[in-house]
Design brief:
The protein is globular and about 55 Å long. The protein has 196 residues and is mainly α. Helix content is 76%, strand content 0%. The protein has one domain (12-195). It contains eight helices and no strands. The chain crosses the membrane at residues 20-41, 75-98, 104-125, 152-173.
C-alpha cells in the first residue's frame, strides 16, 4: 500500500474507500431502471479492476464506460435476471402456501437460487461481461464449481449487503459499491489461484 502523498489530506486507504463509495453511488443510480442491474454491476467491477492498473475509479469514468458498453445484450441479461428473481419469489410463495412437500421444495429452491445468484454475480465480475454475457456466465459457472470458497465469499458479500440494507435502509443505496468491490476481489483471487 502506498504512502500518503505531500498535500494529500487522507491516505490511500481512505482514497480507495471514497472511490468505492462514488462508484457505488453511480452504480445505484444506474441500477434504478432494474433491467440495467447486470450492466451496472459489471461496469462497476470493470472500473474497480482498472483501479488496480492505475486507472481512476471515479463516477465520471464509471458513466463513460457504461455509456460505451450499454447494448441490447445488457438489457436482455437484465430482463433475464428480473424474470429469474420473479420466478424465485413465486416459487418461495408457493412453498410458503403449505403445499405438500413444501419444506423440501423450499430448500431445493433456495439452493438453486443461491447457485444462480453466485453464477450471475460472478459473471458481472468477469471482463467478458463487458462484451459477451454468455461467455461470462459459462466461465463464472466453471469458476463457481472449481472455487467453492470464492462462491462462499460471494454469498457472504451478498448477505452482508442485505443485512446492512435491512439494518439501515439508506445504506441500501450505498451497497452496490462494496458489493462490486467484493465481486472484483473474488475474481482477482480466483485468477491468482489459477495462475499458481
Amino acid at each position: 500500500m502506498g504512502t500518503q502523498e505531500p498535500g494529500e489530506v487522507f491516505g490511500p486507504r481512505m482514497t480507495l474507500f471514497a472511490d468505492v463509495l462514488s462508484v457505488g453511488l453511480a452504480t445505484a443510480v444506474a441500477c434504478l431502471p432494474v433491467v440495467t442491474v447486470p450492466a451496472a454491476l459489471s461496469t462497476a467491477c470493470a472500473v474497480l479492476r482498472g483501479a488496480g492498473e492505475g486507472q481512476p475509479a471515479t463516477a465520471g469514468r464509471y458513466f463513460a464506460v457504461l455509456r460505451r458498453r450499454l447494448r441490447a445484450g445488457d438489457l436482455a441479461a437484465g430482463a433475464a435476471a428480473v424474470l429469474g428473481a420473479l420466478l424465485f419469489a413465486a416459487d418461495l410463495a408457493l412453498a410458503g402456501a403449505g403445499l405438500p412437500g413444501a419444506p423440501v421444495f423450499a430448500v431445493a429452491a433456495g439452493a438453486i437460487g443461491a447457485a444462480a445468484l453466485v453464477v450471475g454475480l460472478g459473471a458481472c465480475a468477469r471482463p467478458e461481461s463487458l462484451t459477451d454475457w454468455r461467455t461470462a456466465l459459462r466461465e463464472s459457472a466453471r469458476d463457481s464449481v472449481r472455487d467453492p470458497g470464492g462462491s462462499g465469499l460471494v454469498l457472504l458479500a451478498v448477505a452482508t449487503a442485505a443485512l446492512c440494507a435491512w439494518m439501515l435502509v439508506p445504506l441500501a443505496f450505498l451497497a452496490p459499491g462494496p458489493l462490486a468491490l467484493a465481486l472484483t476481489a473474488v475474481h482477482i483471487r480466483r485468477n491468482g489461484m489459477s495462475k499458481s
